[in-house]
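Students often ask why we bother encoding 3D structure as a string. The short answer is that it lets us treat folding as translation between two languages. Here is a chain of 289 residues written in the first language.
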Amino acid sequence: MKKILLLTLIAACIYACGSVPVTGRKQLMLVPDSEVLTLSLDSYNEYMKTAKKSNSRTDADMVRKVGVQIAAAVEYYCESNGMNDLLKNFAWEFNLVEDASVNAFCMPGGKIVVYTGILPVTKDETGLAVVLGHEVAHAVAKHANERMSQQMIAQYGSVALNSLLSGTSDKVKSLGQQVYGLGAQFGVMLPFGRKQELEADHLGLIFMAIAGYNPEAAVSFWQRMEQAGGASTPEFFSTHPSHETRIEDIKKELPEAMEIYNTVWVNNNSTNKTTAKPANTRTDENWHF
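And here it is in the second language, the structure alphabet:
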């Protein structure tokens, strides 16, 4: 009996494998996207009921402007690579919230929140693009779904599999409440794994490059994040890889992102980011992302 359950679980895991855009890494996806989005939206709406939106129209507009650019770059990437289904039921939303925490987050489905406390570290639109590119990458790579699936196997094993196959979502809801615990216990959300964090950095570089923001700014941004911590670690940084690991990995991935940035924007002397779709500026029709 145990062998049958194990084989069934293995078969389900193989069947439920997905892959991350850009990196191509295989990942476990046991939870339907529809349930992930429903749970995350409920948590997000509850959070926004008590969140105080920023009174600075200038800063709020900047967050929306950069967010729209990054979102459009993601859509362009998916369209160019036949991945339109990846963004199914996404509804982008960008909010600047009054909070001194050096933090930001993106819920599955494209709900992005930036805390005012991180703006002195981002400094400008390009620095903000590093943050938004990273956070949007978590949603596009479906890291929350992957994390829920991993927790499901760890906590429930074959019992969770039977629940999913029978259409029961009680365990999924329970895991979702843990993953999207936007209260004091988890700060914003349960931390992603280091592999997911570094992967979000990688995807973020690509997305900001397509959007027309120089990816080289990522190195100086994370250096400022390190300095901003002083004796303590900023919340946005606390669950992430070490400063050295993150910056070294970003430096290794920069050539790929800079090739995109230079080909799409610099070589075409394009400084207008209002459309965010580099298809209007490309001259090399053989270029692809």
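Translate back mentally: The radius of gyration is 19 Å. Keep this in mind for the problem set.
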